[in-house]
Specification:
single chain, alpha/beta, 2 domains, 8-stranded mixed sheet
Length: about 350
């Protein structure tokens, strides 16, 4: 185990280093993102996971300049893409990146689309705003092609319809069509399946995989659903209270969790293998980030902490443990903690293993 800070891969397509985001409010300063670092390589799927309020969406939205300032204050960095620090770009230059090279698929497409313009017009506009040489007719043809590609039925007729005339699943498909309209190099999907039923969720995840394979784009998947992460991600960043608490491959996350919070998320997954009268849950609530605790933000909810002074008083650094990175003072005790949770559930939570 070493205390080295993660070294940015020179092959990274997009890298974020020591990002901080605060919000100024009536009750004081809220530290939403506290020194977050991650990177994504070409063709890779990076999952960013954590419960609501962990800073997942805020950290990624700040990269694209989507946070209103004020109240948001962004510092740290750099955020490097194509040799440029995105945090230093003017709004005009950032618009040339946003939508053309990096695109975002929002959680709620009903609010992302303009309700008084047709879906086809909005997709066509996304094409023409980044390439003035494309005619309206060519943009329409490309938009219909995109709607067909993402599985919207009757794309010629749907081109002229408004967002309210689409079902939830079709709106999400149309949002994906608009996101890939300019063959972006990075796709950011923010909770893309949250508001959809299970069947449509599976279809959207399959569609994202098809899109990634066809465009060779890297994808950042923001979610609280570890089932989604298991299905599509290559690497995973786990966030809690505005910080990265674990960073690892998706296989290592499920086979050998290196942080008590990750362990709690894995333990909270519903199990089909055993009968459970009650679901395992992480006790307590996330801290108020307007009054962040002096030590580990997870200490009050952590069964591994047991009130120890290190956890109460000192913020753990992200340290390398094998092939993973973990921010836990007592990461060497994680094997025992995993066994304890597995015994409580009656099933080994690690993939491919069963409790004795």
């Amino acid at each position: 185990m070493t205390s080295d800070t993660p070294v940015v891969d020179p092959q990274a397509l997009l890298s974020v280093e020591d990002l901080h985001v605060t919000f100024e409010g009536d009750e004081g300063t809220v530290e939403a993102v506290r020194g977050v670092s991650w990177e994504i390589r070409p063709g890779e799927v990076l999952g960013i996971v954590g419960e609501s309020g962990s800073g997942k969406s805020v950290s990624v939205s700040s990269v694209l300049g989507l946070l209103p300032s004020p109240p948001a204050v962004i510092s740290g960095g750099p955020v490097t893409f194509d040799g440029q620090n995105l945090l230093e770009l003017s709004e005009k230059k950032l618009r040339a990146v946003r939508g053309k090279k990096i695109a975002m698929i929002f959680q709620d497409p009903m609010t992302a689309f303009n309700p008084v313009k047709t879906i086809g017009h909005q997709i066509s506009e996304a094409i023409r705003v980044h390439d003035k040489s494309v005619s309206r007719s060519a943009a329409k043809d490309r938009s219909i092609e995109l709607l067909s590609m993402v599985g919207v039925p009757g794309p010629h007729a749907r081109f002229s319809q408004y967002p309210h005339e689409y079902s939830g699943g079709m709106r999400q498909r149309a949002m994906i069509a608009m996101a890939i309209a300019n063959r972006q190099r990075v796709l950011i999907a923010d909770e893309p399946t949250t508001a959809l039923d299970v069947t449509i969720q599976a279809q959207i995840l399959e569609l994202l995989e098809v899109v990634r394979n066809e465009t060779d784009a890297a994808m950042i998947l923001i979610t609280h659903d570890l089932g989604v992460i298991a299905e599509v991600a290559d690497r995973v960043v786990v966030m809690y209270a505005g910080k990265v608490v674990e960073s690892t491959s998706v296989l290592s996350l499920f086979q050998n969790p290196r942080h008590p919070y990750t362990l709690g998320l894995l333990g909270s997954l519903p199990r089909l293998e055993v009968r459970m009268d009650t679901l395992y849950s992480i006790p307590g609530q996330p801290p108020d980030m307007a009054h962040a605790p002096p030590g580990c933000a997870f200490a009050a909810r952590c069964s591994l902490s047991r009130g120890r002074a290190e956890c109460r008083e000192s913020v753990p650094e992200l340290v390398k443990v094998g092939d993973s990175w973990s921010a836990c003072h007592f990461v060497d005790e994680m094997e025992i903690a995993t066994e304890n949770v597995s015994q409580e559930i009656g099933l080994d939570i690690r993939v491919g293993k069963e409790s004795q």
